[in-house]
Design brief:
single chain; mainly beta
C-alpha cells in the first residue's frame, strides 16, 4: 500500500545497503515523499517546501531546514541531528 501511494507522487527511486555484519537498510523516494527502514526502525519524511534555495522537510525524525545562498554551490542545514554542510 505504501509503494502504491508513493507511485502517485512521481517516479520512484531507491537504495538498499547491507553492512558487513549483515544489517540491512533501505529507502524509497518518490517526489517529495521518502520512506525508509533499517536497524533503527521505520521512517518517513515529506519535503513541504522545495525551492532552488530553501528546503523544509518534516518526518518521523523531526523537522529539518536547509538553505543554499544564491550563486554558491553550498547548502547549510539544521535539524535534530545538528548542523550539516552540503556541496
Amino acid at each position: 500500500m505504501v509503494l502504491t501511494g508513493l507511485a502517485a507522487c512521481g517516479a520512484p527511486s531507491g537504495q538498499v545497503a547491507v553492512t558487513p555484519d549483515g544489517q540491512a537498510a533501505g529507502r524509497v523516494s518518490s517526489g517529495n515523499v521518502t520512506v525508509a527502514g533499517g536497524p533503527s526502525g521505520p521512517a518517513a519524511a515529506v519535503r513541504v517546501i522545495d525551492t532552488a534555495s530553501t528546503d523544509v522537510t518534516v518526518g518521523t525524525g523531526g523537522a529539518t531546514a536547509s538553505v543554499a545562498p544564491r550563486g554558491l554551490p553550498v547548502r547549510v542545514g539544521l535539524g535534530r541531528g545538528g548542523i550539516r554542510l552540503g556541496f
